[in-house]
Amino acid sequence: MTSEPVDDTATTTAPAQTPKRAGFTYAAGRFVISALARLIYRPRIEGRENVPLHGPVIFASNHLSFIDSLAIPVAAPRPVHFLAKSTYFEGTGVKGWISRTFFESIGAIPVRRGAGQAALDALDQQRQLLDDGFAVALYPEGTRSTDGRLYKGRTGVAFLALQSGAPVVPVGLIGTDKAMPVGAKMPSLSARITVRFGEPLDLSRHGAANSGRARRLATDEIMAAIHALSEQELANAYNEVPAHGAIEKIKQALPHERR
Between 156-164 and 119-131, two packed helices, what is the crossing angle to 10 degrees? Predict the structure, then answer.
């Protein structure tokens, strides 16, 4: 499986299904997946005491592998929700049921991809989850690192934190790229994974969400905290999806705020 839940740069054209509580599928799935993960990978989990057990929380993590979206819910001491492409939930037959049940069991919420409002619509879905007191997980880099380096953060996570007032818990994942490298069909059973939760960050001192400077400063603080936990080499660049066509290449070359 090489697809991954939607990151903070994803787009959506339909509202997400906001969970009212962690249901049976999530509870049962989390129990089973956690037991298997602990048995197979013997993960080192550090800093669980840093995670607030109640109220809205944003987990901001480095992103190395598809299974990052398994590692965080398994290690966290409370339910965690992700936005995931709605196609994972819309399949038919046995394969569709397996996909739907799996993503529900890891706390994924379906959203539809589209154009137009782009990242703002996805952020609205996550804001709804936070307003309801849930925890959400996001990847500020926007997409997985294929070379193991930590890339510059995009400002969507900071925007969400400043707008909602939710604390940000930085997360450093180590070894998930060895457990399931990008492009791998099946995970390795010999890798050892470490999940580190840092102390919650109150980013409100940077200013309002509508300030570009505040978003940039808050993003840089988040990424510095992730770097301290993950100990990755810094790329000092954005992890850009390869541009297709002349217009997209020009857009990437021009200075702009990476949301």
Answer: 40
